[in-house]
Every structure is written in structure tokens, then in C-alpha cells.
Write the C-alpha cells for this entry.
Amino acid sequence: MKFFEILVVTAETEIFCGMVTKVVVGTQGGELGIYAGHAPLLAILRPGSLRVERRKDRRGSAERCLEVVVHGGFIEVQPNRVIVLADAIERAADLDVAKTAQAVKLAKSMLSSSKDSQVDLAMATLELELARYHVACRGKGIMPSLKF
């Protein structure tokens, strides 16, 4: 497996720096799966999950190096380096499963009762809260529930 360098930072601090084999992140253009040798690009991050993995060989299981929730920002991709500049980041260890599940319920309620002009905001809120919930569950080794 080919490795590439990733640097994940906010304006305040460095979150992660290391050699990895895969990055998965949501952008305004859709979800990206990034591997070594990826074509150069610059994209705006969508609030949601950022997963960073390292695999020792093709048959080996992936080691998840980092999984966080990003609250927007930018990503720069070069063939052998990725830089993520996030507006804010929440780590799985800092997220409470029950609180994030409650936030998903609230966001769903907000979406169902929103007027036409508020649907985009309500949908974005729901997407963010779902990402926070899933990251919180995976960080605690819990299978996310599909019922809310």
C-alpha cells in the first residue's frame, strides 16, 4: 500500500499529522475518498465526518487513525500530501452518544416543521447531527441505531 502525509489542523491547534493510506471526507461537491497519488484539488469541507485510515498491506485490516466531526473548512490535496484546515473539530471521545441522539431527534423535528425557506438549514443541521451521532457511536464501539 502506498502512504501519503496528512495534516489536520484548526486555527488553534494541530489535530493530527502522519502517514496514512486513506482519507474520507465530505465536501460541497460530494464525499471524497483520497488515496496516494490523488489528483490535486482544493475543496470546501461540508460539516460532517472525517475518517483517516492506515493499512499495512492489501489484506490487512484498516487501522482507523482518526475519526472526527469537522464543522466546515478547506481541504488541499496533492499527490503525496493532504492538508485539512477545519473551522472546528469535535473528537469522538468528546461526544456523548445520548446527547447526540437527542440532537438528531431535535433536528428531524425541526426539518419536518420547517417552512420552505428554512428547509436547507434544517437539512444541513440534520446532516451534521447525524455525523456527530455516528462518530460518537463508533468512538465508543457502539452500533448506531437507525431508529429515532
